[in-house]
Write a structure and sequence with these properties.
This protein is mainly alpha-helical. The protein is built from 14 helices and no strands. The two termini are 37 Å apart.
């Protein structure tokens, strides 16, 4: 029986890694086609739209993080469905608030950007199902939903781009997420039951468990994605488009690191073992190092062959690869600190690093355009936040071990 479960777990990991691989490949194809066929200004507009879409990852206001904390320790099926229902409807409400905000923010270009924030709204609801089955350790359903949501919207965007250009790209993304939502709700939907008073108690617990990690992640969002709104504001859409081409190289590695962490997140929460986290973090970093090294030498030929219009920015693309190495282990150690109730430490680290980043960012943005300085600043931020997070994880793991011995 034990051997069967071990084989089943390994097969699920393999399936998920294969899905992650194809997700990265399809994202790679989509981004290459977007970079190749759109001018830098249109690319800047799409980048801004994607940033709006990604902002919906925080529309749950910490409640989604609370699922990872409470579901693994819940023994009652009724209680688990209650927790899901509260998370689902509260995320729906907060996402609608985001929709209203982005409506007024992008009022002048409503018809272009509305597809991004409606897609973000649907994606938020899909993620509640995905996180629920991950926290419940129902790997097969988690992986199936991951397959649908990671690949279907990308396929629709690629088809739309070929048929109608930039308009097809954004409409394809919306319809891809709409179909994903309908499939997930129909195939993996849950009967939602909760009482009003009890629901408020559950909401409060989910919120209290996840709010610190949420604020911490939100702060990081501003320094990793949200800074693009300021780059566009100071340097314009065309420069933002070029910047997105450079950061695309970095994002390929970051996607793999996030997907890898998601697959082992449940075990991190259950074991709370620094040794396990350190080994997994080391494995992930070594994998990223190998691919970064290969990419560093192949990148010039790739750019010259596929996107020759950006060949003058090859040096900056190679520079940003360096930041992918320390940043790759960050999600794993973030969730370890979350699992041992050191969320406030994460918050302090993120606020400290992000504050330094934005102080230096505004100094750079007020000067003439310099992508070299901007990329150097990004790498400095990635290294600093990763170093402080890993060091904190090690320090508190030793304190926990010492307390057990005493």
């Amino acid at each position: 029986m034990k051997d069967f479960l071990t084989r089943h777990f390994k097969s699920n990991i393999l399936r998920y890694l294969v899905i992650s691989y194809f997700s990265v490949v399809f994202n790679l194809i989509l981004n290459i086609l977007t970079i190749k066929y759109l001018n830098s200004r249109d690319l800047g507009s799409v980048t801004l739209g994607k940033s709006i879409f990604q902002s919906f990852s925080f529309s749950h206001f910490g409640i989604r993080f609370g699922l990872d904390r409470h579901l693994p320790n819940s023994n009652s099926q009724l209680r688990r469905t209650e927790i899901f229902g509260i998370a689902y409807f509260s995320s729906m409400f907060f996402s609608l608030v985001f929709v209203i905000f982005w409506f007024f923010y992008t009022f002048d270009d409503f018809w272009f950007y509305c597809t991004f924030y409606f897609s973000g709204f649907l994606n938020t609801l899909i993620m509640i199902y995905r996180v629920f089955y991950r926290a419940e350790n129902v790997k097969s359903k988690f992986i199936n939903i991951s397959l649908i949501v990671n690949l279907l919207p990308i396929v629709f965007q690629i088809i739309g781009l070929f048929i109608w250009g930039i308009l097809g790209l954004i409409i394809g993304g919306f319809f891809g997420h709409l179909i994903c939502f309908l499939i997930v709700k129909n195939q993996y939907g849950l009967k939602i039951e909760f009482r009003k008073i009890r629901g408020l108690i559950i909401l409060k617990r989910l919120f209290n468990s996840g709010i610190v990690l949420f604020v911490s992640a939100g702060v990081t969002f501003f320094s990793t994605i949200g800074d693009r709104f300021f780059i566009e504001g100071y340097w314009g859409l065309e420069v933002l488009g070029v910047f997105s081409v450079i950061m695309f190289v970095f994002s390929v590695f970051n996607i793999f690191a996030v997907n890898y962490t998601e697959m082992i997140m449940n075990k991190i929460v259950q074991t709370r073992s620094f040794r396990y986290v350190f080994i997994e973090g080391l494995k992930l970093t070594l994998i990223i190092c190998i691919f970064v090294l290969i990419s560093y030498f192949l990148l010039p030929s790739f750019v010259k062959l596929i996107i020759p219009q950006y060949v003058s920015y090859t040096a900056q693309m190679k520079d940003i690869l360096i930041g992918a190495i320390p940043f790759s282990c960050l999600p794993i150690f973030n969730h370890y600190l979350h699992s041992i109730d050191k969320r406030k430490i994460l918050l302090v680290i993120n606020i400290f690093c992000t504050s330094i980043y934005f102080i230096l960012l505004f100094i750079i943005l007020k000067e003439k355009v310099s992508l070299d300085r901007l990329i150097f600043l990004k790498n400095l931020f990635y290294t600093l936040i990763s170093l402080l997070t890993v060091t904190s994880a090690l320090y508190f793991s030793r304190k926990i071990s010492y307390a057990k011995e005493v």
